[in-house]
């Protein structure tokens, strides 16, 4: 059974599912209770579950994240909302120094079953300080799991998996897509981490992305198809753990790859993808792996500049044409 | 703006070496001005400007190997701007198809032979910038290398359409469909610079006539001198290595009593003296070899990608030694020509070969080869087949020997040994033996040469 739901509804459904199933699950965040959440993700939950399960917290990211780490260490399963991931810089010390390392420090005796979630990425004119894609930032640290679902079904299924995971999970939501709809499986549709999704099958070039850029790649694939090139689109979904096999198998079939990311080019996920491909599928490559990334500038506010600073469909199709040794358009 | 491209001077030519610029950048040139000296595997030529203007940009550097059809310079007319140098081989390649045929938009420069007497090669490895294979290493994508290995393809036969001449998958797929890139044991050595010595690694990229990795370093001791192989020496070396290693040669020698032929030659030469014709022994041998092919046509054949191509007409290649190598100009349809015509043509070809003035179409093709070392007093030798041909006949000297006449009496006789080298894939020993017996019969009954 599947029903059409928005990304927001699917996300809420997963948290409700776990609130109902597991008493140790609590939601924490700024304005998530009485106000219903800045992005209305938790709208209505306060009335249903009360202030002990749906906790409004002060504007103090380091403080409430630290509290959540402690709660998780004591056996609770807190799901912390960052109003946007941009604010997590304030909590980075708790996330990186404690959440990611306590299990290691304690020789495995103390787990930190913590989920930190919130909208990631830009594209909605929030300017430089509110425009970050933090997957490579958090993906860099051992001890953290990092996921970035793009479909309503995946956001639900991966939130279920995240809450059940005994380790801290950085849950990067496609903030610009909260209102987008898609079919969502009923009930427990837990999606495992470390397994990419083939969003579109193709034989000529592999486009690899995650989060919002997956949709960009799907549009680019349609455009390429008009020219007779069938692109395979891979949605990574999970960045740590990372599904190398799906990429390698695809490139072994297509012989060409383009990695797309919203974040800046340097030290990004796309670079990691390119490295993995050259490492494991070198003899299948017909062209160097292309990377399409955001422009190397702080996120601009002006709409025209913002559009230019983000990967465009044209950039993706042209990168694909380059690896196909075709004329750019 | 007119591009000056590396002209295609023959079917087998894939690249040429830019020996020397005769004009410098920024210099005014008129139509017909020699602007550069170019060396192919066979000859050295001057490249003439086909347009007037300023020599705007010298793309190729001296000593660089440039693929056919690729731009080496631009001639800037009034008010024109210098274009960006295109990296890819794509556009240039289309022109390469047209070769040096000067059909309007294509080649903008023609090569004329000037018989540049010395081949002062500067064979440097500077060429790699614009060419996928200039230094003997191929630019090819990993999947191309894998496909080539799995399908036994010869990357040297595939033109790269990617940037900087990189061979990419579609090039290989195309070649696989057309079957043009099979690594064959036949006469594929028509290609330049691709012969594969046995010691070589399977990777085509490693293949070149001289392989630094496998050869000793020069001792550089006193009393030694290091001579770099010329382009022609390299090509000969590569082709002969290829032929010797890939063609299963067999040999058949006959001894021909040449008295009758010599007598006829003397008689004819007396008659033809006024016309300035002097028939050589080799003219008789070549004609005899052609006449005998009428009975054994399967030796007049080429070993091709799709089977043995039998030729009706005999285009006879004759080996001509040069100071710096060897070339085989071709007497076309020799079977239809008389001895006098053959004599004149062979002398002309040999003279111009030594002067470096042959046109490419004069030394390409050929369906069988005759190689004569008789003038050096050689008693007998075997020759390496000139691929993709089926056979070569090695002609030795004529020597006086005692022989028996019909009555069993010992008489002096002029004897000459002919040794056939034939491709066992095309002919068997019996074919070769019967053919040589027929050559012998014709030469010993030289009246047969008249029919």
UniProtKB/TrEMBL annotation, chain B:
Keyword Coiled coil recorded: yes
Keyword annotations from UniProtKB, A to Z: Acyltransferase, Coiled coil, Lipoyl, Pyruvate, Transferase
Coiled coil: which residue ranges? Answer: 251-278
A GO CC term attached to the entry:
pyruvate dehydrogenase complex
Q: What is this protein called?
A: Dihydrolipoamide acetyltransferase component of pyruvate dehydrogenase complex
Q: State the residue spans of region: Disordered.
A: 76-136, 176-225
Question: Which family is annotated?
Answer: Belongs to the 2-oxoacid dehydrogenase family.
Outline the extent of the Lipoyl-binding domain: 1-76
Which species is this record about?
A: uncultured Rubrobacteraceae bacterium
């Amino acid at each position: 059974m599947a029903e059409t739901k928005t990304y927001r509804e699917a996300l809420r459904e997963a948290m409700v599912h776990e609130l109902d199933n597991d008493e140790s699950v609590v939601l924490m965040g700024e304005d998530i209770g009485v106000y219903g959440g800045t992005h209305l993700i938790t709208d209505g939950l306060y009335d249903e579950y009360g202030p002990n399960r749906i906790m409004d917290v002060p504007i103090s990211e380091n403080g409430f994240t630290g509290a959540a780490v402690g709660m998780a260490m004591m056996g609770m399963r807190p799901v912390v909302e960052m109003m946007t991931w941009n604010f997590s810089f304030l909590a980075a010390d708790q996330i990186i120094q404690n959440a990611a390392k306590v299990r290691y420090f304690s020789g495995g005796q103390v787990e930190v079953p913590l989920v930190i979630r919130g909208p990631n990425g830009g594209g909605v004119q929030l300017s430089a300080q509110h425009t970050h894609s933090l997957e490579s930032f958090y993906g860099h640290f051992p001890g953290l799991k990092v996921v970035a679902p793009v479909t309503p079904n995946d956001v639900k299924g991966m939130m279920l998996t995240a809450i059940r995971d005994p380790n801290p999970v950085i849950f990067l939501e496609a903030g610009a897509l909260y209102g987008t709809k898609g079919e969502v499986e009923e009930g427990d549709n837990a999606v495992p981490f470390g397994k990419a999704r083939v969003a579109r099958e193709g034989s000529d070039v592999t486009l690899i992305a995650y989060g919002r850029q997956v949709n960009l790649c799907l549009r680019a694939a349609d455009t390429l198809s008009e020219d007779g090139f069938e692109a395979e689109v891979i949605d990574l979904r999970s960045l740590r753990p990372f599904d190398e096999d799906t990429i390698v198998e695809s490139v072994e079939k297509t012989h060409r790859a383009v990695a797309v990311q919203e974040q800046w080019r340097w030290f990004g996920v796309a670079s990691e993808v390119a490295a993995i491909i050259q490492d494991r599928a070198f003899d299948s490559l017909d062209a160097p792996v292309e990377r399409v990334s955001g422009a190397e500038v702080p996120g601009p506010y002006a709409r025209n500049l913002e559009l230019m600073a983000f990967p465009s469909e044209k950039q993706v199709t042209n990168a694909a044409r380059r690896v196909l040794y075709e004329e750019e358009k | 703006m007119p591009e000056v491209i590396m002209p295609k001077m023959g079917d087998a030519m894939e690249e040429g070496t830019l020996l020397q610029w005769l004009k410098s950048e920024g210099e005014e040139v008129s139509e017909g001005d020699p602007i550069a000296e170019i060396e192919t595997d066979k000859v050295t030529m001057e490249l003439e400007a086909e347009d007037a203007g300023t020599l705007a940009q010298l793309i190729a550097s001296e000593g660089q190997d440039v693929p056919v059809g690729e731009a080496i310079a631009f001639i800037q007319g009034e008010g024109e701007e210098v274009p960006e140098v295109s990296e890819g081989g794509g556009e240039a390649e289309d022109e390469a198809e047209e070769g040096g045929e000067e059909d309007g938009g294509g080649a903008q420069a023609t090569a004329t032979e000037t018989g540049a007497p010395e081949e002062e090669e500067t064979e440097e490895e500077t060429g790699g910038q614009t060419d996928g294979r200039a230094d003997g290493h191929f630019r090819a994508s990993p999947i191309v290398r894998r496909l080539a290995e799995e399908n036994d393809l010869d990357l040297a036969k595939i033109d790269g359409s990617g940037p900087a001449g990189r061979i990419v998958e579609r090039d290989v797929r195309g070649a696989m469909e057309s079957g043009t890139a099979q690594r064959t044991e036949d006469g594929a050595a028509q290609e330049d610079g691709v012969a594969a010595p046995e010691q070589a690694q399977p990777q085509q990229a490693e293949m070149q006539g001289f392989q630094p990795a496998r050869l000793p370093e020069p001792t550089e001791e006193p009393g030694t001198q290091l001579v770099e192989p010329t382009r022609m020496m390299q090509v000969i070396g590569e082709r002969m290595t290829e032929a010797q290693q890939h063609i299963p040669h067999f040999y058949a020698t006959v001894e021909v009593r040449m008295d009758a032929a010599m007598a006829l030659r003397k008689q004819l030469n007396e008659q033809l003296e006024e016309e300035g014709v002097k028939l050589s022994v080799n003219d008789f041998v070549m004609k005899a070899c052609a006449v005998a092919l009428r009975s054994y046509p399967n030796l007049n054949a080429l070993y091709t990608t799709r089977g043995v191509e039998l030729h009706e007409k005999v285009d006879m290649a004759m080996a001509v030694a040069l100071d710096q190598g060897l070339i085989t100009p071709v007497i076309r349809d020799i079977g239809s020509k008389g001895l006098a015509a053959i004599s004149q043509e062979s002398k002309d070809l040999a003279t111009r070969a030594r002067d470096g003035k042959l046109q490419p179409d004069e030394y390409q093709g050929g369906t069988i080869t005759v190689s004569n070392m008789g003038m050096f007093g050689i008693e007998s030798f075997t020759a390496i087949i000139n691929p993709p041909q089926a056979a070569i006949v090695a002609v030795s000297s004529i020597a006086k020997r005692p022989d028996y006449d019909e009555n069993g009496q010992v008489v002096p006789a002029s004897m000459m040994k002919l040794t056939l080298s034939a491709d066992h894939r095309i002919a068997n020993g019996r074919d070769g033996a019967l053919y040589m017996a027929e050559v012998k019969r014709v030469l010993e009954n030289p009246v047969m040469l008249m029919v």
